[in-house]
Amino acid sequence: MAKTAKAAATVLLLLLVLTDTHPYRTSAARPIKTVVILVMENRSFDHMLGWMKKLNPEINGVDGSESNPLNTTDPKSSKIFFGNQSHFVDPDPGHSFQAIREQIFGSADTSIDKPPMNGFAQQALSMDPNMPQSVMNGFFPEKVAVYESLVSEFAVVDRWFASVPASTQPNRLYVHSGTSHGATSNVPAQLAKGFPQRTIFEDLDDAGISFGIYFQNIPATLFYRNLRKLKYVTKFHPYDLTFKNDAKNGKLPGYVVIEQRYTDSKIEPANDDHPSHDVYQGQMFVKEVYETLRSSPQWNETLFLITYDEHGGFYDHVPTPNHGIPSPDDIVGPEPVFFQF
Ligand SMILES: *[C@@H]1O[C@H](CO)[C@@H](O)[C@H](O)[C@H]1NC(C)=O
Ligand SMILES: *[C@@H]1O[C@H](CO)[C@@H](O)[C@H](O)[C@H]1NC(C)=O
Ligand SMILES: *[C@@H]1O[C@H](CO)[C@@H](O)[C@H](O)[C@H]1NC(C)=O
Ligand SMILES: *[C@@H]1O[C@H](CO)[C@@H](O)[C@H](O)[C@H]1NC(C)=O
Q1: Among 59, 84, 156, 198, fewest CB within 10 Å belongs to which?
Q2: Which atom of ligand 2 is found nearest the CA of 71?
Q3: Pairing mode of beta strands 12-18, 302-308
Q4: Which residue positions does the secretion signal occupy (predicted)?
């Protein structure tokens, strides 16, 4: 059992590193004083940025020659090629541990050294007859125009993988603490109780570096138990009331976490990109955060990172690393997979 768990690993994500890239300013001359992190939801690299290869051939993206069979064990199975027609995605593709294992390895056999990344269409078909088309598709650049502009101006990291082949919260826990404390799924009781591991926030606090969490509705960072301490209550700021002012006044702390709206309503649509949430809302939010930072006096000393928690069930062509991945804390995940890297 443990062996199975060891083999499965991670899925490619999107990361933009936004820094001023003017060649005449050397890195030594511009120390980063503010790091801003925005973690969007449940979309793969190829789905969001794969076709950006058209803008920059150095991006390890797609050209439409990538495909998945509908049935990985049938040599005569029909194939679905990766398309450029992504639009509104509903229903939500699968991204539980078991679903991701099938997407990456094509089956539950995780002993293969280089995962073939061939089970996305098959796993999607097991959920819904139209879903293989959804997961084997990416946005054409002008459909995600904010990313199109950012990709044209800033760095794109195309070798960034989700930490755990699992859903949102285990991956979100990794972002600020380097571990999910063994979690391989979202377990409401565990989340309510809070996770006990040390986080970057305590490290920053000890080092005298300020931090702040700007949230729109629910701060997922409260799933770290330590952040519930009374002394950190002043670190949480309602985004809509404070972010623009703090940026304008040069008052952003050293480590800034932006938490977008994860919940959806007619008046306040979710803007986290999680299917079926409209990517348009996510694009508008990224644009707002970018423009706010860009016009801040702190911009010249800011590093802005945009990433995704996990791939959300969408196809990626780059094989995920699955061997020799060190465990952050030797905690073994729960049954039935006992995931331990
Ligand atoms: C950034 O701009 C401020 C003034 O707006 C200046 O004091 C500071 O030295 C600049 N930092 C760098 C790294 O250029
Ligand atoms: C996939 O193909 C195999 C071999 O042809 C067959 O046994 C199996 O039933 C197929 N699976 C599905 C879901 O059609
Ligand atoms: C996008 O896909 C369509 C249909 O599959 C194809 O005809 C077209 O050439 C593609 N466009 C680009 C720029 O690849
Ligand atoms: C990512 O997808 C799955 C299920 O659709 C969910 O469990 C996870 O929490 C997602 N994120 C959000 C914010 O819904």
Answers
A1: 198
A2: 1
A3: antiparallel
A4: 1-28
Distance CA 95, CA 123 (A): 10
E strand or H helix that includes residue 156: strand 155-161
Q: Which residues of 167-182 are buried (b: 16+ CB within 10 A; e: fewer)?
A: bbbbbbbbbbbebbbb
Secondary structure letter of residue 320 according to DSSP: P
Q: Residue with the nearest Cα to atom 5 of ligand 2?
A: 74
Which is the closest atom of ligand 1 to the Cα of 29? 13
Q: Do 20 and 328 form a contact (C-beta atoms < 8 A)?
A: no
Q: Which ligand is nearest to the CA of 25?
A: 1
Six-digit token string for 19:
């820094």
DSSP type of residue 323 = S
> Do the Cβ atoms of 48 and 319 come closer than 8 Å?
no
The residue whose CA is least distant from atom 8 of ligand 4 is 168
**28-83 tens-digit pLDDT:** 565 899 999 999 988 999 999 999 999 999 999 999 999 999 999 999 999 999 99
Distance of CA 209 to the CA centre of its chain: 25
> Residues 321, 10: contact at Cβ < 8 Å?
yes
Residues 214, 146: Cα–Cα separation, whole Å = 21
Task: Give residues (CB < 6 A) around ligand 2.
Answer: 71, 73-74
Q: How does the average pLDDT of the chain come out, rounded?
A: 88
- Specify the residue with its C-alpha closest to ligand 3, atom 3: 84
Tell the residue nearest (CA) to atom 4 of ligand 2.
74
Q: What is the pLDDT of residues 192-221, one digit of tens each?
A: 999 999 999 999 999 999 999 999 988 999
Ramachandran area for residue 266 (φ above 0: left; ψ -120 to 50: alpha; else beta): alpha
Copy the structure tokens of residue 98.
């078991």
Q: Return the H-helix or E-strand segment holding 294.
A: helix 279-294
325, burial (CB in 10 Å: exposed 0-12, middle 13-18, buried 19+): middle
- According to the 3-state scheme, what is the secondary structure of 190-222? HHHHCECCCCHHHHHHHCCCCEEEEECCCCHHH
